[in-house]
Amino acid sequence: MSKRAGHTYSTSEPILLQSIGGTSKASRFYDEDAARISQKIDEELKRDWTRIKDAQRKQVKVMLLGQAESGKSTLQKQFQLYYAHQTLEHSRPLWRPVVYFNIIKAVRMILDELEYELANIGSDDSTEGQAVAHALAPLGDISHEITQLRSKLVALISLEDSLASELSGGVSVTGGRTGVFVRAGWQALVTPLSPNRSRAVPATGVPPPAVAHVTNLASRTLNAFQDEVDELWKHPAVRILLNNRRVRLDESAPFFFDNMKRISQPDYLPTTADLLNVRLQTLGVAEHSFDVELCGSRYNWLMYDVGGARHAWVPYFDDATAIIFLAPISAFDQYLEEDARTNRVDDSLQLFTAICSNKLLKNSHLVLLLNKTDLLKKKLEAGIKVRKYITSYGDRPNTFADVSEYFRAHFIQVHRRNDIGRRALYAHFTSMLDIRATQAIIVNVGEAIIRSHIARTGLA
User: Fold this and answer.
1) How many CB atoms lie under 10 A from the CB of residue 360?
2) CA within 20 to 30 Å of 380's CA: 154, 176, 351, 407, which one?
3) How far apart are CA 458 and CA 460, in angstroms?
4) CA 191 to chain centre
5) Best CA proximity match to 439, nearest among 85, 93, 94
């Protein structure tokens, strides 16, 4: 055999290397104990993989989508109330400072708008402005009266920022917007930590010192000035501003003002109705997990309340079992906070169009909840005309039956024209504050979602 320069060759007998994965007992490298351990590890890994796959097949991912204030968080609480009520019971004390914040914010907004209207009365030449001035005229000069009320309530109003800071945990948003903006896991900020500081202990109603201090201060102050808050809420000037839509409070504000006597008590603990009415704006994606017994089997539901950015979340949920889209049809007379030219119902239609036409979401079961029908009925009964805000409504009757069907037809048309998955659309009229009616819908929606999940995964 010729040799190439620069290379050396062994003259010894060639060695046949035993395959690394070989198990031949004839090999001098064979170790029976090691082989047995290796085989045991392989079998355990296969069992773990099988368990993981089985668990994933019993896992149901549900996305709650819709614009801000559409009712997503309230629907999540309704699911929790029906399927995991014990977890909602444990969290009741955590919502106490949030209820206080909702009330204090509303008090401040009413006083600010009252002072603005009284300072500029007669200078607003618009039809609405003249109507307010005409309605306030019989009350005479009430500026001093309102100033005195603010002086009495200044101690209460001053707690708004402190509560917001403790609840938000340092989270802030751009654009000068104020309030409580929380991310997933905000409850940990108002829950004491275990001794090792690694995780929150179960809710006991005893929050960390900073949160406890501002919460108790708010409780004492609210109790001390409950009569003044009640006087402000029932003041005829406030009624005029509300009737003429000059002050836009959170939709739950009347509920909390009407329950001031109960809420201002020192031993106050939020009721289920309080939890469903409370307003708290979430940022990002909040995950809620609970077990659901349906169709004779137990499923792990992962419910995602998507807030903040609208489209950034799509790539992370292409395997979602279902999408529940909430459209607040009572918002026909409202416009986006970030764009005063965009009607909120029109914005919901645009968002629903984007979801129906998104390829990454085409395999998800689709449920549409036309929400806040209770508020829609109240607005229509108060004489608010839909055609004033949505010109395409034309001369149709301004009744709940006609208005609700008009909106339902528009959403169904969007689905028919844009849904690339050719999915069935399950549509329901809802009021998230109606526990009995909403939970009947939750059962129907849950069973439909599970049937869809079984069809996709092949579970028997």
Assistant:
1) 13
2) 351
3) 6
4) 20
5) 85
The listed range with the strongest mean pLDDT (55-64, 131-140, 449-458) is 131-140
Degrees to nearest 5, angle at CA 271 with 442 and 208: 110
Length of the chain: 460
On the question of pLDDT at 200 being above 60, the answer is no
Q: Identify whether the C-beta of residue 372 lies closer than 8 Å to the C-beta of residue 75.
A: no
Q: Which two tokens stand for residue 395?
A: 């001369």
Rounded CA-CA distance 79/288 in Å is 10
Is the pLDDT score of 212 beyond 70? yes
Q: Give percent of the chain with pLDDT exceeding 70.
A: 79
Distances (CA, A) of 327 to 215, 246, 372, 397: 34, 24, 8, 22
CA dist 114 and 134 (Å) reads 15
The two structure tokens encoding residue 368 = 């549409």
Sign of the C-alpha dihedral computed for residues 340, 171, 270 and 225 taken in this order: negative
- Bridge partner residues of 369 (DSSP): 326, 428
Q: Go through 5-23 and write b for each residue having 16 or more CB atoms within 10 A of its CB, e for each that does not.
A: eeeeeeeeeeeeeeeeeee
290 — phi, psi (to 5°)?
-160, 155
pTM of the predicted model, to two decimals? 0.79
Question: Structure tokens of 310?
Answer: 């609208």
Structure tokens at 202: 């179960």
Q: How many CA within 13 A on the CB side of residue 445?
A: 29
SS3 readout for 338-386: CCCCCEHHHHHHHHHHHHHCCHHHCCCEEEEEEECHHHHHHHHHCCCCH
Instruction: Name the residue type at position 89.
Output: E
Residue 288, pLDDT > 60, answer yes
User: Which residues share a beta bridge with 326?
Assistant: 369
Do 332 and 386 meet the contact criterion of CB atoms below 8 Å apart? yes
Which candidate, 420, 374, 422, places its Cα nearest to that of 400?
374
pLDDT at 449 over 60: yes
- Which is more confidently placed, 184 or 82? 82
Strand, helix or coil for residue 396 = coil
Q: Can you tell me whether residue 208 is helix, strand or coil? A: coil
DSSP symbols for 142-155:
-HHHHHHHHHHHHH
CB-based contacts of 228, cutoff 8 Å, min separation 6: 149, 152, 153
36 three-state secondary structure: helix
Please name which of 243, 251, 318 lies closest in space to residue 70, comparing C-alpha atoms: 251
- Containing 220, the helix (H) or strand (E) segment is helix 209-224
From residue 87, give the alpha-carbon distance in Å to each of 23, 61, 91, 162. Answer: 53, 19, 6, 27
417 phi and psi, to 5 degrees? -85, -30
Across 412-435, average pLDDT: 92
